[in-house]
Automatic annotation (TrEMBL):
Keywords: Membrane, Metal-binding, Transferase, Transmembrane, Transmembrane helix, Ubl conjugation pathway, Zinc, Zinc-finger. Pathway: Protein modification; protein ubiquitination. This is E3 ubiquitin-protein ligase. Residues 87-123 form the RING-type domain. It catalyses: S-ubiquitinyl-[E2 ubiquitin-conjugating enzyme]-L-cysteine + [acceptor protein]-L-lysine = [E2 ubiquitin-conjugating enzyme]-L-cysteine + N(6)-ubiquitinyl-[acceptor protein]-L-lysine. Pfam families: Sina_RING, Sina_TRAF, Sina_ZnF. One of its GO terms (cellular component) is cytoplasm. Residues 143-204 form the SIAH-type domain. The chain crosses the membrane at residues 12-33.
Amino acid sequence: MLLSEQKTHLVLLFVRLKIFIFCVCRLVFCLTFEIEEVSMSGLEMDGSAVGDRSGIAESEVQIASQLRGPNASRSPRTESVVSITECPVCFDVSLPIYQCINGHIICNSCLQGLTEKNCPSCRVSLAKPTRNLALEKVLKSYKVMLPCKYSSNGCTVKRVCEEKEAHQLICPFKTYACPMSNNNNCRWEGRLDEIVDHLKGRRRPSHFVPLLFGETATFYFPAETDAESQLAIQIQTCFGTYFLIALKITAATDPNAGNEYFALVQVIGHSEVASRYAYRMELERDGRRLSWEAVPLEISDNVKHAMDKGDCLCFSSKTMMLFKNREIDLIPLVVTISEV
Ligand SMILES: [Zn+2]
Ligand SMILES: [Zn+2]
Ligand SMILES: [Zn+2]
Ligand SMILES: [Zn+2]
């Protein structure tokens, strides 16, 4: 009898112990789940607090909270959203996002760069691509932080899609093609602070471009060229800034018309730097003067496009003959840079 009572007591004790262990486990699980949810929502919502979701439609907040509910599966992390929305060609995320009829996405820049308008993923025609507004809305509404396009160069900046483009324009890790790439097929690419070193010879390969100091300098450019089109570049530095002085000679299609000459100044800096300066280019000889004044181009501006538009000092072979230094067969171009 005594033995039976002891047995019952032991069984009861065992059952209570099991219930206690179950409760402790459940409590630990709930606490862990809550902590994970808070940290994940911080990642997804631009680092803001869970309650701070201004600008997001009520229904979307409800959808988001349903996604985060205890019965739902885990909501996607920022990295997952970025990888889902990244362009399969350049691995960047940018708006607008286009898609083929099979739903494969592509960014606007890669779409414009396609030589054949076919989807890179499935080869169907992309002649009439459609926008993927749903993906764009996810990026905008949830303020997903996107890595800079130049993250592979070392940039760690992340921005929401509306602000990403503005950062990338002035990103110190942005790479630029060699300013002479069109002229001699130089494939060099480098950061803004490496351009001068590449051009003037401190860093190989180089073009050994002449560098002149001062606000006013006289550059001597070749008067003739054997090539159909030749771009010559020299560098001027003043006010702690470097400027590229570019002169292009284009052989005219009509042999009687002679060559055409185009000259301009481009600052090795962004638009904010370019807007601080003005330049004047002058050809002067025997009492004649040909002059052009403008704000320098910024480094991202296309020199060829500006010259094609005539937004520069332009003159013909006949005019050039009036200003050429006949002894040395060069064009003396006087460039004056001033602060505005
Ligand atoms: Zn792309
Ligand atoms: Zn496709
Ligand atoms: Zn960047
Ligand atoms: Zn080069």
